[in-house]
Amino acid sequence: MANLFSLIKDYLVDKEDGIRQLNTWFLNVVMEEEALPQAGAQRYERTDSRKASRNGYKPRTLLTKNLSGKFYISRFWN
């Protein structure tokens, strides 16, 4: 995952590319946070309350007018 400070620095240098990178980073963080309740545990956490285990990521590309980037969607197995 990219360093937030380097993303902000890139934004200040090249606003168009910088905003794309910031949006990509933000959406990946949001998807990671959404995966936590689905698994029932933090990454690498061993617990009896775990609902599912992670099985890697599915890389996806999203292209829009203001956003393009690679996103990583968590995969699970029960």
Name some characteristics of this structure.
alpha+beta; 2 helices; 78 residues; 27% strand; two-stranded antiparallel sheet; elongated
Polypeptide structure, described:
This protein is an alpha+beta fold. The protein has one domain (about 5-75). The protein is built from two helices and two strands. It has a two-stranded antiparallel ribbon with strand order 1-2. Strand 1 and strand 2 (about 70-75) form a beta hairpin. The longest helix is centred in the middle third of the chain and has 25 residues, at about 15-40. It is elongated and about 45 Å long. The two termini are about 25 Å apart. About 0% of the residues are buried. The model has no long low-confidence stretch (mean pLDDT about 80).
Mean pLDDT: 78
Order of helices and strands: HHEE
Number of strands: 2
Number of helices: 2
- Span between termini: 26 Å
Helix content: 40-55%
Low-confidence stretches: none
As for the number of domains, it is 1
The structure class reads: alpha+beta
Determine the strand fraction and express it as a percent band: 25-35%
Largest sheet: 2 strands, antiparallel
Question: Which value, in Å, is the CA radius of gyration?
Answer: 15 Å
Anisotropy-based shape: elongated
Strand order of the largest sheet: 1-2
Protein topology:
Elements: H1 4-13, H2 15-39, E1 53-63, E2 68-77
Helix pairs in contact: 1-2
Question: In summary, what is this structure?
Answer:
The protein has 78 residues and is an alpha+beta fold. The chain has helices at 4-13, 15-39; strands spanning 53-63, 68-77.
